[in-house]
Amino acid sequence: MAFWEAAKPSLLTALSVIAAGVLVRLARGLPFSNPDQFELGEVRLIAAAIKQSIRALRALIGVVFLAMGSLVFAKALGAALTSAAFIPPKVLPYVEPGVSAVVGFLLTYVFVRIFSVIKGDVSLVDLQSELLVKSVERKQAERFDKSLKQSDTPPMKIPEGYGKIIQ
What we know:
It is rod-shaped and about 125 Å long. The chain has helices at 2-28, 40-83, 92-152. The longest helix is centred in the last third of the chain and has 61 residues, at 92-152. The protein is an all-alpha fold. The chain is built from three helices and no strands. α2 packs antiparallel against α3 (92-152). It has one domain.
């Protein structure tokens, strides 16, 4: 428990920065401005990926707050459990290490979830860029087809009798 008390200010600061980043990311919402350029299936793919990312962020913020609370109250919880009458004397030596293990587990889980959320956001960006490229390719193909159709029509009408031998 002494380690957690000594590391508490630094860990709380780090967890606060993580929580702030998660809250900013949650406030960002749906990250596109013009869905008209995408097909319905593509918009559904992006929307599903964003919903998954938001669920992961909500879980992360919950675990971050739980870890922050456990850091703040770990010493008091350990003291309360060791002085509790319902704890058997054989278990008392394991109370503080148990509370310490819970705090360590929560902090480890926070950092594992961070990497999971980052991986999810990277895959979301990959999906968005892939669909954006497809959208631009479609527009370019439409422009090309349109210009090809316009080039099939003669720009001017050939006068009647043009090229006929006069003599």
